[in-house]
């Protein structure tokens, strides 16, 4: 498949995905398990790699969300990047800081527009020590 350059980061699709991404973040911080589960593709192939957990398949994701307590921290997103490919596929990435740890967070979600709407088909979250004085692009310490 070849994608014409004018189909990458179409403003309408970027705006649509940015709103969904921020709604997802609000649901995450509110620990709204039903909303969070609804953002994910209801399929055995959906995958989420968390900070200290892994879910493969929507049933595993639902079970995980049922066991997660409400967060006792705040989270500040920065460097949010939404890259869209045509009208039906996007990657959302961000870095974040949590109030309860000095670790630096990274989050990536792959979104696909399905008949049921935009869904996350793959997600990854990680947290690492990061030297704030290191030049950009330096590896974690």
As residue ranges, the low-confidence spans are none
**Fraction of residues in helix:** 25-40%
Strand-pairing-aware structural class = alpha+beta
C-alpha Rg, in Å? 16 Å
Mean pLDDT: 93
Task: Bin the strand percentage.
Answer: 25-35%
Ends apart, CA distance between termini: 39 Å
Tally of separate helices: 3
For the biggest sheet, the summary is: 6 strands, mixed
**Helices and strands, in N-to-C order?**
HHEEHEEEE
Indicate the overall shape.
globular
Tally of DSSP β-strands: 6
Written overview of the protein:
The structure is a single chain. The protein contains 3 helices and 6 strands. The protein has 141 residues and is α+β, with helices and mostly antiparallel strands. Strands 2-1-6-5-4-3 form a 6-stranded mixed sheet. It is globular, with a radius of gyration of 16 Å. 16% of the residues are buried. The mean pLDDT is 93.
Quick structural summary:
26% of the residues lie in helices and 35% in strands.
Which secondary structure elements does this structure contain, and how are they paired or packed?
Elements: H1 11-30, H2 33-39, E1 47-49, E2 54-56, H3 58-67, E3 75-84, E4 89-98, E5 104-114, E6 117-128
Helix pairs in contact: 2-3
Q: Notable features of this structure?
A:
globular, 141 residues, 35% strand, alpha+beta, six-stranded mixed beta sheet
């Amino acid at each position: 498949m070849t994608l014409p350059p004018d189909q990458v980061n179409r403003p309408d699709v970027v705006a649509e995905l940015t709103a969904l991404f921020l709604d997802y973040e609000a649901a995450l911080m509110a620990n709204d398990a039903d909303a969070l589960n609804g953002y994910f593709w209801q399929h055995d192939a959906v995958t989420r790699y968390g900070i200290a957990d892994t879910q493969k398949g929507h049933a595993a994701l639902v079970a995980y969300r049922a066991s997660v307590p409400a967060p006792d921290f705040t989270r500040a997103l920065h460097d949010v990047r939404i890259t869209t490919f045509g009208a039906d596929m996007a990657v959302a990435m961000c870095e974040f800081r949590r109030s309860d740890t000095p670790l630096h967070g990274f989050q990536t979600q792959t979104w696909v527009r399905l008949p049921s709407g935009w869904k996350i088909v793959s997600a990854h979250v990680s947290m690492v020590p990061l030297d704030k004085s290191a030049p950009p692009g330096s590896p974690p310490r």
